Amino acid sequence: MRTLLLWCPDWPVLAAEIVDGVPATGPVAVLHANRVVACSERARAEGVRRGLRKREAQGRCPQLTVVEYDPGREARAFEPVVAAVEELVAGVEVVRPGACAVAARGPSRYLGGEEAAAERIVEHVALTCAVESQVGIADGVFAAGLAARSGRVVPPGGTPGFLADLPVEALGRPALADLLRRLGVRTLGDFAALPAGDVLARFGFDGALAHRLAAGRDHRPLAVRQPPADLAVTADHDEPLDRVDAAAFAARALAEQLHDRLAAHGLACTRLGIEAVTAHGQELHRVWRHDGLLTAAAIADRVRWQLDGWLSGSTGRAGARAARPTAGIIRLRLVPDGVIAQAGLQPGLWGEAGEERERAYRALSRVQGILGPEAVVTAVLGGGRSPADQVRLVPWGDERLPARPGGAAARPGEPPWPGRLPPPAPAVVLPDPLAATVHDAAGEPVVVSARLQLSAAPARLAVGTARPVEIVGWAGPWPVDERWWAPAEARRRARFQVCLADGAALLLAVEAGQWLVEAIYD
Amino acid sequence: MAGRMVVGSAALAGLVRPASAPDPAGGHRVLPVAPELTGLLPNRGLRRGSTIAVAIGQPRRSGGTSLVLALLAEASRAGSWCAVVGVPTFGAGAAAELGIALDRLALVPHPGPEWATVVAALIDGVDVVVTAVPAAVSASVANRLAARARQRGSVLVPYGRWDGADVTLQVVRGAWEGLGPGRGRLRRREVTVSARGRGAAARPREIKVWLPGDGFTRVIPRPASTTSVASTTGRSTAGRLRPVPPASASRRVALTLVGPA
């Protein structure tokens, strides 16, 4: 089968440049298990070769940049190249990152000849991805790969002749090549001349496969990759939608359509992107998460709430969300973002167990539609020394993970957080501590020394500009010196509990000489 | 196999109701509150559809927030869903200590100008809605929200100034214990809560509770002359100067009835 193979030389090096920004024009080597697996042109000129040890390679080229081998990075960087090839040719097989094969018959007929097709593909890849590549055309993927190294187009039927002169190392099987050399078989032609039955008897199945490849009988069809299915649904409206009920009607139809499309692929959606374009070209976009599966009704509800929020929306908190769109919506698009295989949903046997939960979820999702997904949160307790550190607020529907492990409900093996405040916890935790001043009985400001020595017993507290209040009970200083090893996050403070004459109790902290009210025991 | 059977039957135990148990349709009309607070509320609990306001305490910061959390605690523990609107300073640690299930508690810290819409939406689906009352709420909006709660069977707990509530609770006095000049730590607070309202709750009541308690159910003895109403906790009344027990003792109820003032 005529195969066209696109090969990018030194792909591991190029991938390192694309993903990590390592300049591929300099001497670069990609190492795996302390051996060089690929190197750049400059490094090769300095004598770096595949298979060298790191020390050896650096000895030959002292200014060598060493990059660790990362197959994920290579595959990721290769994806745009495959997409560029797919724009011209249908049915691409990714042989490995850096090489992809297509059946040559289609593009050569469409683009007017094999050379023209090869030129066109190389040019397109260079233009869209700025990646240099070479193309080889031959019968079979194996021969095409070897042809691509020299950028050759092997004429139809000429493949056995093209392969005959190549050394046995080209098979990519070092152990077999070594053995063949010692047996006096030096080229693929010599190897292909051996009787197939004897090769199978002597070298086993892998040897027999190599023998077929060497003879140019590579009949394996391409394993073409399936481009990801386009699951998004779009609806255009000639009449701009500016009323909520009209929008809701459109939303329901669109949601059913999306759900049918997902069901046809055997998929279900856990995250849904809603995009709308208004008549004035304004684009609105929001993503909804759901920890269960989104059914058709749930999709419709979310779209309706979102449109409701957009169309009837007034400006929320300053800058928290965009103002109401200036015109009606003319295009609506639903993009299923998180898609998983639908394995069927199992509701509870005694159904009403989750009814209240369902009701609450609907109400909270509705509020999320009005205010935005981050406006409805749920608190998760974790580790930490101050009351504010222990709590993390996660948007409703997201996974409830604490910011730091451990804390009051610490399981064995989790950090115990020595120095955290004893219960009871304060009922009012100020997100932004209030500045305060503390004076002693003589009217002098109270200071805490570096050795935690208090200048005098605190007697009066003034929060902000309010009138000073007498302190009737106090305890402290309780020092906290956190994250001193990370200068940007280091915090050193001393905390106090104080009881005021009016019955209030506060948690104070002194940080860098400044008194702060951190929490109120309301 | 046998192990799975046992797990299965244990899971069912929560769902299957014995025939002798009260019917949830009638029995769930009142959400439970901590036993110490039942005396304040006309139905000895949070009646579905009612509005129970908590006014800002007279000396501010003397226990109003803790009172709100204490009202929620028992209902939340029993499986109700709760929401708190407009309280950006919510102390989740204190809520958890009082027994509120944080995974069934939603917070809307900044409802903004959409406050009434948000509260109405939450009333539709959540059992108890606590909301800090914004500065300017017209009587008609307040009435509409209360009517909605009545219709949907939710409990609305406005925190702040609210006219026309079924019951209005207010912290009159709060006194902390455990903190001396330069020593000790905050351990517990004696809070005096007053309740006034309409209908069955028209007669003003006042009780004293530990809020938060020191995690140890015990009664503050009253002067020997008056009879004890505090015997509901089932503990004898002992000397007033009992030492504060160590905090390592089993923490069961964080709230203790003290007796009428």
Automatic annotation (TrEMBL), chain B:
It comes from the Bacteria. InterPro entries: P-loop_NTPase (IPR027417). Residues 224-246 are annotated as: Disordered. Residues 224-236 have a biased composition (Polar residues). This is Recombinase A.
